[in-house]
Amino acid sequence: GHFTTSYHEFELALWEREGDTNSVIAFDAAGLKTGKVLTIPAYKTRIHVHNYYRNADAFTAKAAAGPKYISASGVGFLEPRKPDKEATRNLPGITFTLTEQGADGMDIVLYGGELKPLMLTLNGRRVFIQLRRKHYPLDFSMTLTDFVKRVHPGTTIPRDFESYVDMEHGPTSRNIKIWMNNPFRYQGLTFFQASYSQPPGAPQESTFAVVTNPGRLLPYVSSIVIFLGLLLHFILALVSFSRKRREA
Predict the structure, then answer these.
(1) Average pLDDT, stretch 150-164?
(2) Who contacts 20 (Cβ-Cβ below 8 Å, separation ≥6)?
(3) Which DSSP helix (H) or strand (E) runs through 222?
(4) In whole angstroms, what separates CA 189 from the centre of its chain?
(5) What sign has the CA pseudo-torsion 140, 167, 6, 130?
(6) Tell me: the pLDDT tens digits for 104-121?
(7) How far is Cα 79 from Cα 75, in angstroms, rounded to an integer?
(8) Burial bucket for residue 175 (CB in 10 Å: 0-12, 13-18, 19+)
């Protein structure tokens, strides 16, 4: 793929599929406040946010006693919940009116737990919209070519597993291996082997946890500072010793 996905940050994304790529317009969920109006000139459309919940439960339209919404998976009502201390457990929800120029508004509900996007026709184009985990684009791609799992003898419990990946960055490519406790580092990102999936009759999948560590150079900088401090101390002590010898 050409992007990584956040564990706990969300975005409201609209996109069109153009061959093997998507043309995406995304709004950070942190800015989705009640009464917020989002303008999307590309589709001659406005989004008026009614409610945004950082954490919510979703109920089907059959259980909803309020207004009917357009949704991707039959959600008809959101009930806010107190945000969980464990950020990855929060699933947000949003209700809004989407108004295309010259057309009636559409009341829409989206939930962070939905697996598929809502498809709409905007300005004569087929557009997908979803409240999804935030995507971070990459300027390189990684393709899984092989996956190896080893188990403890006599059990089905994994002992270790490793991924073989083709990485392409512009005209260059390289083969890399990522396995447990042996991550791959590139462009300030660290890719850890996190999990895997081998469903019968389906392609094997490998999941990587991707982290960035802005302070990764601090230990080296600290070591250099300590070394320079000791060197300066040694030089000053040597100068002081030489002066005393000359005075004697």
Answers:
(1) 85
(2) none
(3) helix 218-247
(4) 13
(5) positive
(6) 999 999 999 999 999 999
(7) 11
(8) exposed
